[in-house]
């Protein structure tokens, strides 16, 4: 009886040990996130200061998910045009090195190209859109050459002219829509993901863009944008 009991215990221990050996815990996926763009991903608020940006919020979302956030870099600069970002992606060694290692990249660029033309000569607004479209295409192609495996997400803008009189918006909003269309086309052509934001921000623009004298979002608005990005980014972790 004792020998039988010892045999059973021994067999049980073997199977127990074997089960522990065979059951491999799921490995955490490593994420390296790089954000590029203008004042929106930089976190500019409607009152001229900086607060938590949508990339900062995405960083937190990665940390709370079943991933290991290995690195996070936000190279966004207020006032940046697509030409300036293109120059960074082409010539800035620090940014290029981070892009090579990135698993996820977000880009918000193009609005300042349009705004600069509107401020200097509104009749040349389309030139700003054309420049943004061409430069974005170059940016996405360069990123693909540096890191073809990276998941790249490009943001479409909300309506920054929501407080303007209707007759002024009749001229400006179609330009903003055209810019978004070009951004979407360039993203799709390069195999990247377009992330629209107008449909979630515009219906409640006063809530998210509370200063009629400034078209930047508050933290609540950036949180809404972060959630729009996360809807697609969480699938690519």
Task: List the topology elements.
Elements: H1 2-22, E1 29-37, H2 39-42, H3 54-64, E2 67-74, H4 82-91, H5 93-101, E3 104-108, H6 111-120, H7 125-146, E4 151-155, H8 166-189, E5 193-195, H9 198-201, H10 205-208, H11 219-233
Parallel strand pairs: 1-2, 1-3, 3-4, 4-5
What's the number of extended β-strand segments? 5
User: Mind describing the biggest β-sheet?
Assistant: 5 strands, parallel
Strand order of the largest sheet: 2-1-3-4-5
Structural class: alpha/beta
CATH class: Alpha Beta
Task: Write the H/E string, N to C.
Answer: HEHHEHHEHHEHEHHH
How confident is the prediction overall: mean pLDDT?
90
Return residue spans where pLDDT drops below 50 for at least 5 consecutive residues. Answer: 1-26
Radius of gyration: 24 Å
CATH architecture: 3-Layer(aba) Sandwich
Number of domains: 1
Tally the helices: 11
User: In what range is the share of β-strand residues?
Assistant: 5-15%
CATH level-3 fold name? Rossmann fold
Fourth CATH level, the homologous superfamily: SGNH hydrolase
Q: What global shape is seen?
A: globular
Helix fraction by DSSP (H/I, runs of at least 4)? 55-70%
Tell me the distance between the termini: 55 Å
């Amino acid at each position: 009886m004792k020998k039988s009991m010892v045999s059973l215990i021994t067999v049980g221990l073997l199977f127990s040990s074997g089960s522990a050996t065979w059951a491999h815990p799921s490995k955490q996926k490593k994420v390296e996130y790089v954000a590029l763009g203008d004042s929106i991903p930089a976190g500019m608020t409607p009152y001229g200061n900086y607060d938590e940006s949508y990339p900062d919020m995405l960083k937190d979302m990665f940390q709370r998910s079943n991933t290991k956030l290995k690195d996070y870099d936000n190279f966004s600069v207020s006032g940046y045009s697509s030409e300036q970002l293109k120059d960074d992606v082409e010539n800035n060694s620090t940014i290029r090195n981070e892009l090579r290692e990135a698993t996820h990249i977000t880009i918000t660029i193009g609005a300042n190209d349009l705004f600069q033309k509107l401020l200097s000569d509104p009749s040349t607004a389309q030139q700003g859109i054309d420049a943004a479209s061409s430069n974005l295409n170059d940016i996405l192609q360069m990123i693909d050459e540096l890191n073809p495996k990276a998941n790249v997400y490009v943001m479409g803008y909300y309506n920054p002219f929501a407080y303007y009189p209707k007759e002024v918006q009749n001229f400006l909003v179609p330009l903003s829509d055209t810019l978004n269309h070009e951004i979407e086309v360039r993203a799709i052509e390069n195999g990247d993901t377009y992330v629209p934001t107008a449909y979630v921000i515009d219906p409640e623009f006063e809530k998210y863009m509370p200063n009629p004298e400034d078209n930047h979002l508050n933290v609540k608005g950036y949180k809404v944008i972060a959630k729009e990005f996360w809807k697609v980014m969480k699938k690519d972790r």
